[in-house]
Amino acid sequence: MAKRILVVEDNDLNRKLFCDVLKANGYEVVPVSDGNNFLATAKKSDPQLVIMDIQLPNVSGVDLITDLKADSGMHGVPVLAVTAYAGKGDEERIREAGAQDYLAKPVSIGPFMAAVRKLLSD
User: Fold this and answer.
1) Tens-digit pLDDT string for the chain (122 aa)
2) In terms of pTM, does the model score above 0.85?
3) Measured between alpha carbons, how far is residue 26 from residues 12, 23, 121 in Å?
4) How open is the CA angle 121-91-45, to the nearest 5 degrees?
5) How many CB atoms lie within 10 A of CB 4?
6) Are 94 and 102 in contact (CB under 8 A)?
7) Are residues 71 and 30 in contact, defined by beta-carbon separation less than 8 angstroms?
8) Where does residue 40 rank: exposed (0-12), middle (13-18), buried (19+ CB within 10 A)?
9) Is there a cis peptide before residue 106, judged by omega within 30 degrees of 0?
């Protein structure tokens, strides 16, 4: 059975790119464009990995990671943070929230898939 990945990304082109690449590599994908329904969607879809954009409208991806990690049923799901918001100290703040890995946009497909495979094999 294919591993399920939740892709939280508000930019339509980025979300489509991530989803298409993941599907082409044999993964089942659950796209989420709005962070407001993230936790409910995560609980319903039971993903093995979450790919989280950090800059979302109305809510911070860092807060969503914190919420995921605080949920007893979801705290073990690994998170790959993907963001254009790559200022000094941001990676540390994102990892402290619970993200296991971090990629700065623009993301190249090779490093993206390497990070996904690493997180799913742990």
Assistant:
1) 799 999 999 999 999 999 999 999 999 999 999 899 899 999 999 999 999 999 999 899 999 999 999 999 999 999 999 988 767 788 899 999 999 999 999 999 999 999 999 999 96
2) yes
3) 21, 5, 14
4) 45
5) 15
6) yes
7) no
8) exposed
9) yes
**Are residues 27 and 5 in contact, defined by beta-carbon separation less than 8 angstroms?**
yes
Would you put residue 89 in left (φ > 0), alpha (ψ -120 to 50) or beta? left
65: Cα within 13 Å, side-chain hemisphere: 26
90: enclosing H helix or E strand: helix 90-97
With a CB cutoff of 8 Å and minimum separation 6, the contacts of 92 are none
Q: Are 18 and 51 in contact (CB under 8 A)?
A: yes
At residue 89, the pLDDT reads: 86
User: What is the C-alpha separation between 90 and 32, in angstroms, rounded?
Assistant: 23
